Amino acid sequence: MKNSNRVKKAIIPAAGLGTRFLPATKAQPKEMLPVVDKPAIQYVVEEAVAAGLKDLLIITGRGKRAIEDHFDRSFELEHYLESSGRLSELSRIQEIAQLADFHYVRQASPRGLGDAVSAAKSHVGNEPFAVLLADDLMDIKEGVLNSMLQAYSNAPSTILALKEVSDEEISLYGCVEIDGEDSSGLKIVTGIVEKPDLIDAPSNLAVMGRYVFTPSIFEALNEVTPGKGGEIQLTDAIDIQLKNEPVRGFVFSKGRYDIGNKIDYLRATIEIALTRPDIKDEILKFIKKISLS
Ligand code: UTP
């Protein structure tokens, strides 16, 4: 693999206001909501690390201190766990800070996902990079990010994670126009629109929260003018980029949760709990009991 074809950095935007999850997100970041017993963003960090990305830049903002604290050492807690002999909890806590090389940059105000990604420019420089949305959980077993990075190393281009969604859902997402496939089965993306009305949607393929970008996305972001609500949309920058260079889509079908959405959050909690040997049986018993009553 050519060195320039290797993606080493991941950007995790986590500066949004989380308004769909108020009041839980009034004074705590949405990305720190627990799924079973881990904050959502830790799953995302673990997914990046499992895909070989150890240099992580988290985009934070006002009210997001808890994220930095979570991935930092906690000497007082470590001392307490050690002196009370709770060594397995101690090592779980210590491992969090050692997961990756964490970097942070603040987005001055939540002016949209495109603006959040722009804030990564000086950290990323002229390299390809991955973006993982902190409120989108992906089942690591499905290997979506891994497959996207592999596809990038075989043939560099911007690559979007795509999932087929229903007519009712399409207006919640960025939606792509497709013109066939390349030799590796990736879709050739020829257009993209943010949250279209069903009648204007070019397909049923929606963009999910995993991306691999060539660095020219930063130039494209510079050209984007603020849209609805003054937000700089990442979708608009991708639309500019695909006019100048190939953009491809990797389609997956399973194992994704939007934890900014209440129903999906609860689904993630239950499905992930059912993968955990320590609690699976009790949860199953509980589900059976309530479904019979
Ligand atoms: P969302 O649109 O899902 O997050 O952005 P939001 O704006 O916090 O949510 P609602 O709609 O108000 O409930 C996807 C990801 O991008 C980040 C968010 O933190 C989330 O992880 N984001 C969004 C930013 O970092 N900056 C922004 O300006 C907007």
Describe this protein's structure.
- This protein is an alpha/beta fold and 293 residues long.
- It has a single domain, classed as Spore Coat Polysaccharide Biosynthesis Protein SpsA, Chain A (Alpha-Beta Complex), CATH 3.90.550.
- It is built from eleven helices and 13 strands.
- The chain has helices at residues 40-50, 65-70, 75-83, 87-98, 113-118, 121-124, 144-154, 217-223, 234-244, 262-273, 280-292, and strands spanning 9-13, 34-35, 38-39, 55-60, 101-106, 129-132, 136-138, 158-164, 174-181, 187-194, 205-213, 247-251, 256-258.
- The strands form three sheets. The chain has a nine-stranded mixed β-sheet.
- Helix 3 (75-83) packs antiparallel against helix 4 and helix 8 packs across helix 9.
- The chain is globular.
- Uridine 5'-triphosphate binds at residues 13-21, 30-31, 59, 107, 110-113, 115-116, 133-135, 260.
In short:
This protein is an alpha/beta fold and 293 residues long.
Which characteristics define this entry?
293 residues, Spore Coat Polysaccharide Biosynthesis Protein SpsA, Chain A, 9-stranded mixed β-sheet, 35% helix, globular, binds uridine 5'-triphosphate
Radius of gyration: 20 Å
CATH topology term: Spore Coat Polysaccharide Biosynthesis Protein SpsA, Chain A
Which sheet architecture does the biggest sheet show? Answer: 9 strands, mixed
- So what's the overall shape? globular
User: What structural category characterises the helix and strand content?
Assistant: alpha/beta
